Amino acid sequence: MTAAPSFADAVGRITAARTFADLVDDAPGQTAGHAYRMLVKAVHPDVAPAGRAAAATAALARLARLWADRDGRVLTTGRATYRVGEVVASGDIAELYAVDGGAALLKLPRRPGDNDLMRAEAAALDRLASDGDPRYRAYAPRPIESFTHEDGARARRTATIVERQNGFVSLADVRRAYPGGIDPRDAAWMWRRLLTGLGWAHRAGVVHGAVLPEHVIVHPAEHGVVLVDWCYSVAPGTPVPALVARHRAAYPPEVTAGKPATAATDIFMATGLMLRLIADPPAPLARFAAGCTYDAPRMRPQDAWSLLGELDELLGNLYGPRRFRPFAMPA
Q: What start-end ranges are recorded for coiled-coil regions in this protein (predicted)?
């Protein structure tokens, strides 16, 4: 934001922003103060277009609140001091807060009883960071710190701080935006990258355990995919510790029966997730999915990267050579 944006653009950005960090560009030299001054200049009622004074006043007031809240409250751990802002998302078991102006996220469980799941996530992210192939590091959030937080009521909760993924939306958001489903060619890059991320995790000794719409986020413009919410993750051969109740039907039989999870568990869930996202999947793709979702884990593919090769061959037969296909969320 090197120059003041238009009135309409500025109002739209301010209205959509969750934190002030959402209003700061990645351009070299861009600072929060500069962004604030440019936005004030753009939406000040004195320069608003005719008939837009009320919208200008509301936008300026919201901008002022976002600016005032940018630093948030101070949280000091054994390693660092953070400024915690507003809640930016609510997960299955935790709230996510903007940290340090939105550069990171604090994940704090609502109940101390879920501390074990929070510890599982911290352990999984640490293992992926240490044992996973660094070429695929972008497929999971980067862990910054895990610690125990004690509130005013002396309740102790395990919390984590991770690097924030900007510009991403969940596959649940995609489904809401496209209730009739998306084109299989758009789903192709999501599916491919999802299998890539899962194969990377499996080779590091981690089964995600909950490949669900809210736990897979995508960057529409850059075609990025990140697996989030590793609270349900386990080592291969270990039962998944908990289910997301509203998605019970999406789990394979071994999870609902409390039996050991394997790479085939994630493959089952990833396949169902992608198939449910596609509008009218072609018959060859539906047959491919059926082969990944047998009730018996031993009947399913066991290696996500090998399965990716099979998917690529199928997609090539259906649609020809791969080419970049722009994808966007509705405004």
A: none
Looking at domain 73-163, its CATH class is alpha beta
The confidence score (pLDDT) of residue 288 equals 98
Tokens of 24: 């700061």
- Amino acid identity of residue 4, one-letter, is A
Question: What is the C-alpha R_g of the chain?
Answer: 22
pLDDT in tens, 175-198: 999 999 999 999 999 999 999 999
CATH 1.10.510.10 location in the chain: 169-319
CA-based nearest residue to 31, from 45, 20, 47: 20
What Å distances lie between residue 40 and 3, 44, 66, 119, CA to CA?
Answer: 12, 6, 12, 43
pLDDT digits (tens, 9 = 90+) for 12-23: 999 988 778 788
Residue ranges of the chain that CATH labels 3.30.200.20: 73-163
- 44: tokens are 């000040």
Query: Could you give the residue ranges of the DSSP H alpha helices within the chain?
Result: 7-16, 32-43, 53-68, 115-131, 171-177, 184-203, 253-256, 263-277, 283-290, 304-319
Inter-CA distances, 113 with 77, 94, 180, 218, Å: 21, 11, 38, 30
Q: Are 159 and 108 in contact (CB under 8 A)?
A: yes
Instruction: Give per-residue pLDDT as tens, 86-97.
Output: 888 888 999 999
- Measured between alpha carbons, how far is 213 from 211 in angstroms, rounded to an integer? 7
Q: What is the pLDDT of residues 86-129, one digit of tens each?
A: 888 888 999 999 988 788 999 999 999 999 999 999 999 999 99
Which CATH architecture best describes the domain 169-319? Orthogonal Bundle (1.10)
Euclidean distance between CA atoms 76 and 55, whole angstroms: 39
Distance between CA 61 and CA 86 in Å, rounded? 17
